[in-house]
Structures are given as structure tokens and as C-alpha cells.
């Protein structure tokens, strides 16, 4: 959506195709929305609503793919549909628990989450805490993944947090007996993410003030 807005400043016409609910904030007059692409044609694209348009340029914004070509097979890490496994709490390699992956979860407070993950891993690498047996870590990972499937997530969403990110932070903190991320940071991230969808054009003008570890408030001009 950011790219579409920037292109609309120069291009004669821009169409953004997405699979979310239809966005309702006011777009520039030369920027329109379409449903998912059903197929590309010689001159453009057909969409799932039956319409067809021609384009000079098609730009794919399909997200990221996890890939670790520098890891040998003997480390036991596999990636299936963007699900990196087997990992304990989305970061510790259960097969070789001195190996950790920092930053896999997405739709998160990235810097704060990575700091928390590092502190989580260090609790075990320094010997302050002891990891459960491998079979218990595997069971924990399998149960967490199954819970996601039951809530309607796909395998490619295995590391997606979003509005539920606070549960992950608190689980890391409770498991390793370390300090979690203040709730206000999670609330701010979730609020900003929603504002991005509700008013992409103006959401960066928002100003917040942190009141305490739990609450924030809008700062009025």
C-alpha cells in the first residue's frame, strides 16, 4: 500500500490488488483497488471479480520467504511453507540447542521482540536456566502450531504474531523467568498497525505519549 501511494504521485494510473477487506480511506483519484489476481495476461491481469485491466508494469509484493542456504542438513532445520522447524519458542533449534534464530516472528514490535528473544536464549546458554528435554520442547512446538491451525491460520503463518504478540512475549518471559516487554509497547504496535489499515495516508502523523508500562494516549495538536 505504501508503494502504491508513492507510485500514484508519478504514474498516470495505479491499481492495488489485495485480499483484505476493501480499504475505505480516501485514495488519490488515480489509485484504485482490485480483488486478487486470478491470472496474468499478455497485457495485464484478470481479477477474481471477473474484471480485467491492462498495465505497463506489474509489481509483486508477496512478502518474505525464509531460506537458510548457509546451513547444512546436519543442523536439522527444515523450512516448509515458511514454517521453520523444529524450534522451541520460535527461536531455539531443538536438535542443536546452542543454535538460535532471532527475529523470525513477524507483525511484532521487532526491536523489542529481538531483545527479548536474545535475553531468553542467554538465560539457557549461560546456564541460568535449563531447557526441558527435547521431546518436551517438540511437544510444546507441536501444540503451539496445532493451536494456530485450530484458529484458522495456515502453515505459512507459523511465525505470525500480530494482535496476539503479547502472549508470545509473556510466554518467553515466564518460561525463562526474565522481564517481558511492557504491555504499552504491544498496544502501541497494534494500534499503529490498525491505523495503517484505517488511514494509510495520515497514520504517520499520529503522535502518542506513553503514560506508563500499560497505557498510552494520543497527543493532540
Question: Key features?
Answer:
FAD/NAD(P)-binding domain; 221 residues; alpha+beta; globular; 31% helix; 3-stranded antiparallel beta sheet; two-stranded parallel ribbon
**How many distinct helices?**
5
Number of strand elements:
11
Major beta sheet summary: 3 strands, antiparallel
Tertiary shape:
globular
The strands making up the biggest β-sheet line up spatially as: 3-4-5
- What is the terminal separation in angstroms? 27 Å
Elements, N to C (H/E): HEEEEEEEEEHHHHEE
Which stretches are low in confidence, meaning pLDDT under 50 for 5 or more residues running? none
Mean pLDDT: 94
How many domains? The number is 3
Helical content, roughly? 25-40%
What class do helices, strands and sheet pairing give? alpha+beta
Strand content range: 15-25%
Rg from Cα: 21 Å
Cofactor: FAD
Organism: Anopheles merus (Mosquito)
Protein name: Flavin-containing monooxygenase
GO molecular function, one term: flavin adenine dinucleotide binding
Task: Report on this structure.
The chain has 221 residues and is of the alpha+beta class. The protein has 3 domains: 1-54, FAD/NAD(P)-binding domain, CATH 3.50.50.60; 73-181, no CATH class; 184-219, no CATH class. The protein has helices spanning 2-8, 110-125, 134-150, 165-176, 183-198; strands at residues 14-17, 31-34, 37-40, 44-47, 52-54, 78-80, 83-85, 87-88, 92-93, 208-210, 216-218. The strands form 5 sheets. It has a 3-stranded antiparallel β-sheet with strand order 3-4-5, with no helix packed on it. Strands 1-2 form a two-stranded parallel ribbon.
